[in-house]
Design brief:
Blueprint (H helix, E strand, L loop, with lengths): L1 H30 L2 H23 L7 H33 L15 H7 L1 H23 L3 H26 L5 H22 L6 H24 L1 H10 L4 E4 L5 E4 L4 H7 L7 E4 L4 E6 L3 E2 L4 E2 L5 E5 L2 E5 L3 H16 L4 E7 L4 H8 L10 E8 L2 H9 L1 H6 L9 E5 L2 H7 L4 E7 L6 H4 L4 H10 E11 L14 H12 L3 E6 L4 E6 L8 H6 L15 E4 L25
Parallel strand pairs: 9-10, 9-12, 10-11, 12-13
Antiparallel strand pairs: 1-2, 3-4, 4-7, 5-6, 7-8, 13-15, 14-15, 14-16
Helix pairs in contact: 1-2, 1-3, 1-5, 1-6, 1-7, 2-5, 3-5, 3-7, 3-8, 5-6, 7-8, 11-12, 17-18
């Protein structure tokens, strides 16, 4: 019996930890803030486990073995169905509570907090059952001596480690969480059946019925999810069933709210499927654009597509050129420099590199491009840029150029260990919506950028500051934080420029006068930018020396920008 107890304890621990990690991961993905909500979810789970361990003391010694079987039979079904419930809650939230993050607020918090907090309830239930499992197993072990209890505790932690490693390194980058949960549920059911046979519980009719119900529930859930296209329904609701508005010629605004759940469910099969590619660090979605007649709600054939990372917009196939043209070519005209050694942080889709190469060897350039180093944290996007038909066509196989060198690594750590100098550095990353992304807007990271620049070099950065709001210097604006942080990092000039949809920063170690508008328009770079109004939207922003607003990894200041996608 001790060996069987030890082996089954390992299996039960593996399943419980898988449930916890899968639920936590899903909550993080659906809220767009994995680090914050993982911390909240971990606290809720551990607290619930403690309550479950206390509850285990109420079971009499004769009923321990049977009670373990009951708990595991309930866990078999509760774990997978918790994920189904959370996805269903998210469907309801996106349709009935989320209105572009603008119309419904919970005090100062967006409505996504309500969804995330309600989603803790299934996790608390799993935590209670897992705590009962630990408490009951330890009491069984105590019958064989204190040493057996210590062994069981060690085995339980080993099971948790195996679950963590297998999910993080092997399973999560390739499979949907809900599919993994159902698979773990079937494994849990098999282990529970082994428990019944090993512990001579086969005559306990109620326990056998519970296992049968769990197995029937899991198989029914697998069939229903497959037949209903539940995963695609959830993705399509996120990307297609959106809050929107339309303005007529008289300035009258008409709001269009998301379609009701049942109505959208019936129509979802007519919409194009969302192509999802899971990587180690992020999920990448390719979404076909629908030309929608809002009056009739009839869709035509898809004409364009967009790419999202972790649910956040990255590129649109029809509009990306204006963005990448401005980011690549305008700094050369404004700074009257270009070429040499270039570093791109992010930009794993290859589109910025395409633009850099497109005009890099023109005769009127002061110097040609000698090399472009691209550092992106996820090798998955680098691979897609080279092999995915959509991206490969859009970036014109830019990564095939022998001057381009790709590195799949954390740019922060890579620059920290690097001693190379670059003439131009482009930082093409997400806005700091959370603490994870905030570190790439920190004084530590910008100091590494400054250290890696030549004296006359420059850094170009996508700006979270709208050009028309450039004069807003109050604490609620991102501008004072960025200005103070760049000054602390060693930069001495900050220029804001804008195309129609996006604005950018150019920051350098030495000051240089901005050329006149007619000089900019006559520049060689001007021939590579479609938006001629850009040259009238350039302004120098004074750098502020305000230590209280410096964003640091150890003391984050610049976090919590409003994220409209969640």
């Amino acid at each position: 019996m001790p060996f069987a107890l030890t082996f089954l304890c390992l299996g039960f621990a593996f399943c419980s930890m898988q449930y916890f990690m899968l639920i936590t991961r899903v909550i993080g993905e659906l809220t767009g803030d994995l680090a914050f909500w993982s911390a909240i979810s971990s606290g809720c789970f551990l607290c619930a486990m403690g309550l479950g361990i206390l509850q285990a003391e109420k079971t009499d010694d004769e009923g321990l073995v049977r009670r373990v079987g009951i708990v595991e039979a309930i866990l078999c079904l509760s774990g997978p169905l918790s994920l189904v419930l959370i996805y269903s809650l998210h469907l309801v939230y996106r349709i009935y509570l989320y209105d572009f993050g603008l119309l419904i607020e919970l005090g100062e918090r967006p409505p996504v907090y309500l969804f995330a907090l309600v989603s803790q309830l299934p996790l608390v239930w799993i935590g209670l059952l897992s705590g009962l499992e630990v408490g009951l197993m330890n009491r069984l072990g105590l019958k064989h001596g204190l040493k057996r209890v210590q062994i069981l505790l060690a085995i339980y932690h080993v099971g948790g480690l195996l679950a963590t490693l297998s999910l993080t390194l092997l399973l999560a980058p390739h499979f949907e969480p809900i599919h993994l949960a159902l698979t773990v549920g079937l494994l849990n059911t098999a282990l529970t059946a082994c428990w019944v046979l090993t512990m001579n519980l086969s005559r306990v009719v109620s326990l056998k019925r519970l296992i049968g119900i769990a197995l029937f529930g899991l198989l029914t859930s697998i069939w229903m999810l497959k037949e209903s296209g539940f995963i695609q329904l959830h993705r399509k609701n996120f990307y297609y069933n959106l809050y929107s508005w339309q303005m007529d010629g008289n300035g009258l605004i008409t709001f269009h709210f998301p379609e009701g759940l049942l109505s959208f469910w019936n129509r979802a099969s007519l919409l194009p499927d969302i192509e999802r590619v899971r990587g180690f660090y992020q999920t990448i979605d390719f979404v076909e654009e629908l030309k929608t007649d809002l009056a009739t709600s009839e869709e035509s054939e898809p004409s364009a597509w967009s790419m999202y990372m972790d649910g956040r917009f990255q590129i649109h196939s029809k509009t990306e050129r204006a963005y990448h043209e401005a980011m690549a070519h305008a700094p050369h005209a404004i700074r009257q420099t270009g070429g040499g050694k270039i570093l791109v942080v992010g930009g794993g889709d290859g589109l910025l590199v395409r633009e850099l190469l497109r005009a890099g060897d023109q005769n009127d350039r002061k110097r040609p491009i000698t090399s472009i180093d691209v550092i992106d944290i996820d090798h998955q996007i680098l691979d897609l840029a080279q092999h995915h038909p959509k991206l490969k066509q859009l970036n014109q196989q830019a990564f095939a150029d022998p001057r381009v060198h790709l590195t799949a690594a954390d740019a922060f750590q890579t620059l920290r260990l690097s001693h190379q100098s670059y003439d131009s550095i482009y930082v093409d990353i997400l806005f700091p919506f959370n603490i994870e992304s905030s570190r790439l807007y920190s004084v530590e990271f910008f100091s590494l950028i400054a250290r890696s620049l030549t004296l006359d070099g420059s850094m170009t950065l996508l700006s979270p500051v709208d050009y028309d709001e450039r004069n807003k210097q109050q604490s609620s604006s991102p501008l004072p934080f960025i200005s103070s942080t760049l000054f602390k990092a060693g930069f001495r000039q900050l220029i804001l420029f804008s195309e129609k949809r996006h604005s950018f920063f150019i920051s350098s170690l030495e000051q240089r006068e901005i050329p006149a508008t007619d000089v900019l328009k006559a520049s060689a770079s001007a021939g590579f930018i479609q938006d001629n109004t850009l040259w009238n939207r350039i302004i120098e922003i004074p750098l502020k020396d305000n230590p209280a607003l410096v964003n640091s990894i150890l003391k984050p200041r610049f976090v919590g920008l409003k994220d409209p996608f969640f």
